[in-house]
Design brief:
- This protein is mainly α.
- It has one domain: F1FO ATP Synthase.
- The protein has three helices and no strands.
- Helix 1 runs antiparallel to helix 2 and helix 2 packs antiparallel against helix 3.
Length: 100
């Protein structure tokens, strides 16, 4: 959410000079792309998972409890990928002192 502001300030700094500013600008772009692509992928994956769980519950109402348990475990595993991408992005930004 803060990456556009970081990117704008780093891009302005890159225009005024220094290759260090270019490295920081590219790191900000990379971190933004990493979290954006991860969010896109996990959103699609969660949507497909929930739709298939709804289909399974509609076909077999007696198995709703088992389907719900498996759905929650699956969604947690899918969401962990976005959390890992967030940690990597924050690691990039913190390492170059762009964040905190």
């Amino acid at each position: 959410m803060l990456s556009p502001f970081v990117l704008a300030s780093e891009t302005a700094e890159a225009a005024t000079g220094g290759s260090d500013a270019n490295v920081k600008a590219m790191a900000a772009i990379g971190a933004s792309l990493a979290i954006g692509i991860a969010a896109l992928g996990t959103g699609i994956g969660q949507g497909i998972g929930v739709s298939k769980a709804c289909e399974g519950a509609a076909r077999n109402p007696n198995a709703v409890a088992k389907i719900q348990t498996l759905l929650i475990i699956g969604l947690a595993m899918i969401e962990s990928l976005a959390i890992y991408a967030l940690l990597v992005s924050l690691g990039i930004l913190i390492n170059l002192k762009l964040f905190f």
